[in-house]
C-alpha cells in the first residue's frame, strides 16, 4: 500500500475524536426530548444501562476490527475473512457502512448549515442588520445551499489535513469548547424562572415505566445510534489507534463521555423548554407530548431566546455555536470513512480524494435542498432507521461468528495482556455473538 495512513498521536486525541463522532445533533436535541417523553429519569437509567451493556460491546467490535485490520473498513473486514464468501460479506458490510456515512453526511450538512445561519443571526441583529438577520433564519434556496456549502467546506478543510493534523487537532480543540459551552448554558438556564420545573421533569424518575417496551426500544435505539455504530466510522478510527493502547478502557471512556454529554444536553434542553413555557411559549404538541426535533430547535428555543431580550442574543449565539460544533465533530468522522477507502484502495492522494468526495456529497446535499419537502426525510430515514441498524448488526455477526476467538483475544492482549482473566472477556464474546445482533434486530424491527 503506497499511502501513508497516519494515526492518532495520543490517547486523549483518540478519545476526543471518537467522542466527537459519537456526540452529534442527535445527542443534543434527540436524547433530551426522548427522555422527557419516556418517564424522565426512568429513561435516563435505562439508557445508561443499555449503553454499557449493549451499545458498548458493539462499539468494541467495530474498534477491534479496525485496529486488527489497520486499514479502511472494507480492507479491515476482508483481512479477517478466511474464504471467498466471507471476503464478499466483509465487502458488503464495510462498503455498506461507507455508503451509510455518506448518506448521513448529505442531509446532516444541511441541518448543520441551518445551525450556522442561526448562530450568525444574533450577531447580525447586534450589528443592526435586521434584514440580514431575518434572511438568516428564514428558509430560502440560496440560504440553504450557501450554508450547506460552507459547512461542507469546513469538513473538507479538516479531513484534507489528515488524521493527526486534521481530525485529532480539531477534535482536541472543538470537544472541550463544546463541553464548556454546554456547562455555561446549563448554569445560566438554571437561574431562570421555570427551570426548576424542567429539572424536576428531567430528573424525577417514574420507575413504573422502566420496563415499558416502547421505552426500552427507544433507549436502546438512542444508545446504539449515538455511538455512530453502523457507519464504518469506528472501524476506521480503530485502525488509527496504536497497538499498545488498552482498547477495553478506551472504548469505555468514549462511551462514558458520549452518555455524559447526552445527559448534560438534557440538563440544558428540558429546563430551557420549561423556561420557555413560563414565558408563554407552547412546548407541548396537540397530543400532549413535548415538542421535539427540528420544531424544538428552530421554533421553541428561538422563541425563548427572543423573550430574554438583549441577553437572549448572546444565549442564542452560544447555543447555536454549540450545535454547530457538535455537528462538525460528527461530520468529519463521516467524511473520513469514504475518504480512507478511496485513499487506500485506489492509492489516491488524500487532498484530492477528500475534495472530490466532499464535493460529490455536497451535490447530493444540494439535490436534497432543491427537493427538501420529501427528500430530507427520505434520506434521513433510509440511512439512520434502515442503514445503521443493519450494518451495526452485520458487524456484530462478523465479529461474533466469522472472526476466530483466539485472534480476537490476541488483538486485545496487545494493549491489555491480562484481559483473558477479566470480566470483559468472560462476557463480551458471547454477548457480541448472540445478544447484540438480536438487540439491534429488535430496534430495526421496531423502526419498521
3D structure, described in words:
With 448 residues, the protein is mostly helical. The chain has one domain (11-447): Hydantoin permease (Orthogonal Bundle), CATH 1.10.4160. 80% of the residues lie in helices and 0% in strands. The protein contains 18 helices and no strands. It has helices at residues 11-22, 25-37, 41-69, 73-80, 84-126, 130-136, 141-160, 162-190, 195-203, 213-226, 233-239, 247-278, 293-307, 310-345, 350-370, 372-402, 405-413, 423-447. Helix 5 packs across helix 7 (141-160). The longest helix is centred in the first third of the chain and has 43 residues, at 84-126. The radius of gyration is 21 Å and the shape is globular. It starts with 10 loop residues before the first helix and ends with a helix. The mean pLDDT is 90.
Amino acid at each position: 500500500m503506497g499511502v501513508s495512513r497516519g494515526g492518532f498521536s495520543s490517547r486523549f486525541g483518540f478519545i476526543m475524536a471518537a467522542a466527537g463522532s459519537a456526540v452529534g445533533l442527535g445527542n443534543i436535541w434527540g436524547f433530551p426530548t426522548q427522555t422527557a417523553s419516556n418517564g424522565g429519569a426512568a429513561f435516563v437509567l435505562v439508557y445508561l444501562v443499555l449503553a454499557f451493556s449493549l451499545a458498548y460491546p458493539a462499539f468494541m467490535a467495530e474498534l477491534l476490527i479496525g485496529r486488527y485490520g489497520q486499514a479502511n473498513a472494507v480492507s479491515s473486514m476482508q483481512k479477517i475473512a478466511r474464504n471467498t464468501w466471507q471476503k464478499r460479506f466483509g465487502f458488503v458490510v464495510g462498503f455498506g457502512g461507507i455508503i451509510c456515512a455518506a448518506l448521513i453526511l448529505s442531509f446532516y450538512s444541511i441541518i448543520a448549515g441551518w445551525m450556522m445561519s442561526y448562530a450568525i443571526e444574533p450577531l447580525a441583529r447586534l450589528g443592526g442588520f435586521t434584514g440580514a438577520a431575518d434572511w438568516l433564519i428564514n428558509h430560502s434556496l440560496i440560504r440553504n445551499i450557501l450554508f450547506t456549502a460552507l459547512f461542507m467546506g469546513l469538513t473538507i478543510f479538516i479531513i484534507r489535513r489528515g488524521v493527526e493534523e486534521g481530525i485529532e487537532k480539531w477534535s482536541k480543540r472543538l470537544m472541550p469548547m463544546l463541553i464548556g459551552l454546554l456547562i455555561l448554558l446549563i448554569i445560566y438556564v438554571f437561574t431562570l424562572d421555570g427551570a426548576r420545573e424542567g429539572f424536576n421533569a428531567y430528573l424525577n424518575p417514574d420507575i413504573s415505566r422502566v420496563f415499558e417496551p416502547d421505552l426500552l426500544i427507544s433507549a436502546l435505539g438512542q444508545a446504539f445510534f449515538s455511538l455512530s455504530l453502523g457507519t464504518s466510522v469506528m472501524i476506521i478510527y480503530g485502525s488509527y489507534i496504536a497497538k499498545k493502547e488498552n482498547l477495553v478502557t478506551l472504548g469505555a471512556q468514549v462511551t462514558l463521555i458520549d452518555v455524559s454529554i447526552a445527559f448534560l444536553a438534557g440538563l440544558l434542553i428540558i429546563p430551557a423548554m420549561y423556561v420557555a413555557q413560563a414565558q408563554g411559549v407552547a412546548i407541548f404538541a396537540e397530543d400532549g407530548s413535548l415538542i421535539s426535533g427540528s420544531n424544538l430547535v428552530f421554533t421553541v428555543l428561538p422563541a425563548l431566546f427572543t423573550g430574554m431580550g438583549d441577553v437572549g442574543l448572546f444565549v442564542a449565539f452560544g447555543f447555536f455555536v454549540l450545535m454547530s460544533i457538535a455537528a462538525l465533530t460528527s461530520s468529519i468522522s463521516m467524511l473520513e470513512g469514504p475518504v480512507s477507502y478511496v485513499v487506500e484502495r485506489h492509492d489516491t492522494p488524500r487532498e484530492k480524494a477528500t475534495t472530490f468526495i466532499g464535493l460529490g456529497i455536497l451535490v447530493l446535499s444540494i439535490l436534497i435542498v432543491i427537493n427538501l419537502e420529501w427528500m430530507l426525510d427520505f434520506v434521513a430515514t433510509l440511512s439512520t432507521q434502515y442503514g445503521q441498524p443493519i450494518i451495526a448488526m452485520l458487524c456484530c455477526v462478523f465479529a461474533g461468528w466469522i472472526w476466530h476467538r483466539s485472534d480476537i483475544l490476541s488483538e486485545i492482549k496487545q494493549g491489555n495482556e491480562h484481559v483473558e482473566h477479566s470480566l470483559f472477556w468472560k462476557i463480551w464474546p458471547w454477548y457480541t455473538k448472540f445478544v447484540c445482533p438480536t438487540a439491534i434486530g429488535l430496534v430495526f424491527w421496531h423502526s419498521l
